[in-house]
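User: Tetratricopeptide repeat protein. Structure?
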Amino acid sequence: MNTLTLASVYELQGLKEEALEIYKEILKKEPQNKEAKVAIRRLCGIRKKYLGVNEEMKAFFVNMDSEVEFMEFERWLAKLWN
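Assistant: Predicted structure:
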């Protein structure tokens, strides 16, 4: 049974695609469901904005082993979100 609660749990666990599918199913059954509409817009916005992966920074993150590297990665993230 697909519910808003299940979709929220998936979303919180990082299972964005699965959550999105549930929200879409809910909206098909309940076209006026505001929570599903908001969630779909939110998740679609996340997908559009962050489609690609910065492979260089991903490798850097996986291989970090010092406080200096952690701080450098943290600065990069801060720039990304601003």
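The mean pLDDT is 84. Helices lie at 4-12, 16-29, 34-49, 55-63, 67-81.
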